[in-house]
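Thread: quick sanity check before group meeting

JM: Hey all, I'm pulling together slides for Thursday and realized we never actually wrote out the predicted structure for the chain we discussed last week. Dropping the sequence here so it's in one place. If anyone has concerns about the input, flag it before I start.
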Amino acid sequence: MAQPQTLGELKAAGYGRRPVKDEIRRNLIARLREGGTLFPGIVGYDDSVIPQVVNALLARHNLILLGLRGQAKSRILRELTRLLDAEIPVLAGSEVNDDPLGPISAYGRQLIAERGDAAPVAWLGREARYVEKLATPDVTIADIIGDLDPIKAARGGHLLSDELTIHYGLLPRANRGIFAINELPDLAGKIQVGLFNIMQEGDVQIKGYPVRLPLDVLLVFSANPEDYTARGKIITPLKDRIGAEVQTHYPATVADGMRITAQEAWTDRVGEGDGRLEVRVPALIREIVEQVAFLARADKRIDKRSGVSQRLPISVMESVVSNAERRALHNGEPSASPRVSDLYAAAPAITGKIELEYEGEQVGAERIARDLIRKACGEVFSERYAGVDFRQILDHFNHGRSLTLPEMAGDDEALKQLRGVMGLLDAARAGRIEEATPGALIAACELALEGLHAQKKIARSEERGAASYSQARPERPARNLAFDDWSGGKVN
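JM (edit): ok, ran it. Output follows.
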């Protein structure tokens, strides 16, 4: 059936006005009754964040998502468009999406006065009804609300006080839709006053001229809790107008984090011109990558107020795959399988995503990144290899032997080197290896070696793109500064 194209046809079709919050509420109720997924791609929030967002929408509240960086706040806000109708009618040519049955702009009222039921109607899709703005200190009231346009006044022969001379800002253009502001505390106080006034009273002054704009909009925000509470830049009247404050969080479990990283990271490198190179990421590599993020969030040397974004494991995974891809291309192999050594090559993806405390700055981001990788290997090693006997491997190194694994060694060369360590392949197979591939076996062997190194049972060093494992060096006893003579190193 053809959609109505004029106001008269729209009335004949039985169209009735419905506020956007009621529209979202009705569609949400229908989705809940169907039992479908409300926010596809959002992992780990089913029992925490999503129920609170649903409650706020059912209550027709404006809401704010409060959380550290990389907690899917913007994605949740953008997913709210799925709860809007597929299309709604608007007066054709309206800048503020005027409802044909109740226009709020001077243009809309004038159009109906002139054309009546012949006023043209256009249809607006749900994606066009979502307007988002990143709050920065340079945002002006003209950006958000609007400003007078002298050129429009001159061309139309209007007085500057005429509403037809207004160039509308982002908020009026979001009328009958969703208006989102990211990082709300960074918005200047006078702009927040403008937001509050137009939402509470429905009017605003532009260049001293009062304009009545009874907007129909769902207002949603995001903010960092450090900015929200410590810097205190959200004005009290606006904060009072926000109906619900929803706290977001990082993945509660490594499994949830792995699901998010697997969903977001670009690991499928097969495509035109790629030579059909297949990428196979062992499960233990995925687990180590996620453990790096979990350990970073608990590390005292890293600023917890800034957080450790979920983008860290995503970027690390992509870098790990890229290093494996580079090795496969170098050796002419048909597939690329990441190894533990590729994690160290991905350290630059870690250093750029952590904010250090004073103690961490003294150590350096590079060293902390490598330390996190080593500890993550130790965590996964302890879980996967509990009860496995490594005495043969330790005896091999304790007899003065060593193992050198070049980073760019192909699968056959790497397996040849690993077989030279007595009992290593058997011990690696005794752990949980989900994939029966040479790449997965190499990764398992490397994990066993890294785990023993993390437990300080063997030594590890790097030189010219190769990792070497050898007998653990005995730890030197700590110097007792109370008895050492610094001038000669002798006891007093």
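AS: nice. DSSP finds 22 helices and 16 strands in the chain. The chain has two domains: 7-247, 254-471.
JM: adding both to the slides.
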